[in-house]
Design brief:
By secondary structure, the protein is mainly alpha-helical. The protein has 5 helices and no strands. The longest helix is centred in the N-terminal third of the chain and has 22 residues. The protein is globular, with a radius of gyration of 11 Å. The protein starts with a helix and ends with a helix.
Length: about 70
């Protein structure tokens, strides 16, 4: 993975975390507990191209769907 792609993926993981926390009014620590259970950050890192063009709301919806189908 190129450095540019890696940096973009890390940024997407940050955005997903921030947007999900904001949408569900939870702390980063609470999000990380969900991540331990559902491997959300791993999901983002495996398919960053899916998240790259998404709006904040679309990212949250994608994670909600991912978690509900886990």
């Amino acid at each position: 993975m190129s450095e540019k792609r890696l940096n973009n993926t890390i940024f997407l993981m940050f955005l997903v975390t921030k947007n999900y926390c904001k949408a569900h009014n939870i702390s980063t620590e609470e999000f990380l507990e969900l991540d331990d259970k559902y491997e959300i950050i791993n999901y983002v890192s495996e398919c960053p191209d899916i998240f790259d063009p998404m709006t904040d709301e679309e990212m949250v919806k994608e994670i909600e769907e991912y978690v509900s189908g886990y």
